[in-house]
């Protein structure tokens, strides 16, 4: 009898720790300090034109600007993080490079938390016309007749997208057809469900052909679906772009420049 109770308790303990881990892991505040420091190191490394250093609490820009990495709130909900992400929130969900082993969990949205002040400072505020002057047109899969797309030159993104385009254009016709025409790049707009700025508003994102794309808001009951071949995703990731197909709130046409997560 005692043994049975012990076994029961042990099992309960195990279930509790799994539940606690599942609830806490995606939250920035629960990331141990060394993991947070490593994420901040990656952030500084990813944007060498702008960032100088961090001390775990403050991010220092090359122009001397200092930004606190935390807003001091450890109790934020997923929605609060989406709406008002701190810099640590922005780095809190790891993005896994390479093929997807399984559909992402519902709130597994690496990269969807974005700190507006951080990206406004880097790319400009489009509502004040600051992004527009930094855009150039890049030929999109020119051999396939994909037209051209406006994209920011900040962080060398236009050159990186040109490299992506060349590699995509060299793929077989059955694969490259998913990539063109582009469904859009720069757009001074907010994300539908968050009211926050999307990477499109900073000229640092591209949507590929919508014809074979899947989006959580279009899907019946929100069930995950993807038809984009991984060969396309792999090329974008190689050049610093993350893929919206790795989000629980999936958007398989969407790629954005987020080298800090790769
Ligand atoms: Zn998009």
Describe the structure.
The protein is of the alpha+beta class and 262 residues long. 31% of the residues lie in helices and 12% in strands. The strands form 3 sheets. A 3-stranded antiparallel β-sheet has the order 1-2-3, with helices on one face. A hairpin with an 8-residue loop joins β4 (135-139) and β5. The longest helix has 23 residues, at 2-24. It is globular and about 50 Å long. Mean pLDDT is 89; it is low at 1-29. The chain binds zinc ion (ZN). Zinc ion (ZN) is lined by residues 200, 205, 207, 251, 254. Zinc ion binds next to β6.
List keywords for this structure.
three-stranded antiparallel β-sheet; binds zinc ion; 12% strand; globular; single chain
Q: Strand sequence of the main sheet, in spatial order?
A: 1-2-3
Unreliable stretches (pLDDT < 50, length at least 5) are: 1-29
Order of helices and strands: HHEEEHHHEEHHEHEE
Largest beta-sheet characterization: 3 strands, antiparallel
Question: In whole angstroms, how far apart are the ends?
Answer: 52 Å
Number of helices: 8
Average pLDDT confidence is 89
Helix % is 25-40%
What is the multimeric organization of the chains shown?
A: single chain
Bound compounds, each kind once, are: zinc ion
Structural class of the secondary elements?
A: alpha+beta
Coarse shape: globular
How large a portion of the residues is in β-strands, by DSSP E? 5-15%
Estimated radius of gyration: 20 Å
Q: What is the number of strand segments?
A: 8
